[in-house]
Write a structure and sequence with these properties.
The chain is about 30% helix and about 10% strand. The protein has about 350 residues and is α+β, with helices and mostly antiparallel strands. Strand 2 and strand 3 form a beta hairpin. This is Podospora anserina S mat+ genomic DNA chromosome 4, supercontig 4. One of its GO terms (biological process) is proteolysis. Belongs to the peptidase S10 family.
């Protein structure tokens, strides 16, 4: 944080990049590029001194999860033709234009209009860690007199279902922040049930902690001042082998694989780069779980609507159990946590 806020640090570089009077001339773009390089540089010491992922500190650096095969599907000629797209799908926008927008400005404007704002962060995420997500929520609340009490509002257990506590939630009226337990950069992947419950409760306008019907005009959670759950050392189990996705080389391929790709070596099968065709296996032949969710059989049941768990009789429980087990540093620009939902009353 000292590197971010020091004189001529990342924060100072962002100011002229985002100033309303700034044009898109080469001088402004250079400042934005310097800001992006500064922000990216903050992750380098972590990457140099650990073999853990920026997105999930319990997983190896080149974490194969979540699965990236959707990139191949979304760029298939059949799909692009079906939606009439003249361009291909890119997972992330170019970093420089994204730097010029301050998401907090838009979020504060929506909150002022009565939109429900829910921020959530996985507590295994390094890049957009939950401490910064918490700070962001306090920054948003500090801009409104009606949310002055947000920083003293207690954290309540987030009751995912009757047997599992999925996180800690601080909520005051339409603004909330949730620390999702045992989740990485993509809580909806790490903890799908918990994330779905949060999303459903936002839609229904209920307590994010319990799912109970409340009067949001005056509602506030009660509990501890800190979301300070502790646990054993975070070590992911049954992690699939790393996979080098050709459409996301920088994030999924190790240095040797990148060099091989640049030399034109190897083969690409279903969007994944392999040293040779012999390294590829049918999903049913894999024993390390790397095919999980990749070749799921279609179902004939069409489900619509919002499905939630009734928790009226639920009590906080030990979080030892659970549901199922910034992509680009520029995305973690202001260390903003994942925005779960913005839904009109």
């Amino acid at each position: 944080m000292s590197a971010y806020h020091r004189r001529r640090g990342c924060s100072d570089l962002l100011l002229p990049c985002r100033h309303p009077s700034s044009s898109t001339n080469s001088e402004t773009l250079l400042v934005c590029l310097q800001a992006w390089e500064c922000i990216y540089g903050l992750t380098i010491p972590y990457q140099q001194h650990t073999s853990r992922s920026l997105y999930d500190i319990s997983s190896p650096s080149f974490d194969p999860l979540p699965n990236q095969t959707y990139l191949t599907f979304l760029n298939s000629p059949k799909f692009l033709s079906a939606i009439g797209s003249p361009i291909n799908f890119t997972d992330l926008p170019p970093p420089l234009p994204a730097l010029r927008d301050d998401p907090l400005v838009a979020i504060k404007e929506l909150l002022s209009q009565g939109v429900r704002i829910a921020l959530l962060s996985g507590d295994r995420d390094y890049l957009c860690n939950w401490y910064s997500g918490q700070s962001t929520s306090l920054s948003i609340a500090g801009s409104f007199s009606r949310y002055n009490a947000f920083h003293t509002t207690g954290y309540a257990p987030l009751l995912t279902n009757k047997t599992y506590t999925g996180g800690s939630t601080r909520q005051l009226s339409n603004l909330s922040f949730t620390r999702v337990y045992d989740a990485g950069h993509f809580p909806s992947h790490s903890q799908p049930e918990t994330t779905f419950e949060i999303f459903s409760r936002i839609i229904l306008g209920s307590s994010i902690s319990t799912g109970e019907k409340v009067n949001l005009a005056s509602f506030a959670t009660k509990g501890t001042p800190e979301a300070d759950k502790t646990g054993p050392e975070l070590l992911a189990t049954n992690v699939p082998n790393a996979r080098c996705y050709i459409r996301k080389v920088a994030d999924t391929c190790d240095d040797e694989s990148v060099r091989a790709v640049l030399r034109g070596e190897g083969v690409v099968i279903n969007g994944v780069w392999y040293n040779s065709a012999g390294d590829w296996q049918l999903p049913g032949q894999r024993s390390d779980g790397e095919a999980a969710g990749e070749e799921a059989a279609p179902t004939s049941t069409i489900m619509t609507g919002i499905f939630t768990t009734s928790l009226s009789a639920a009590k906080p429980t030990s979080s030892s159990g659970g549901s199922s087990a910034c992509d680009n540093p520029a995305r973690g620009l202001l260390m903003v946590s994942v925005l779960a939902g913005l839904l009109l009353l």
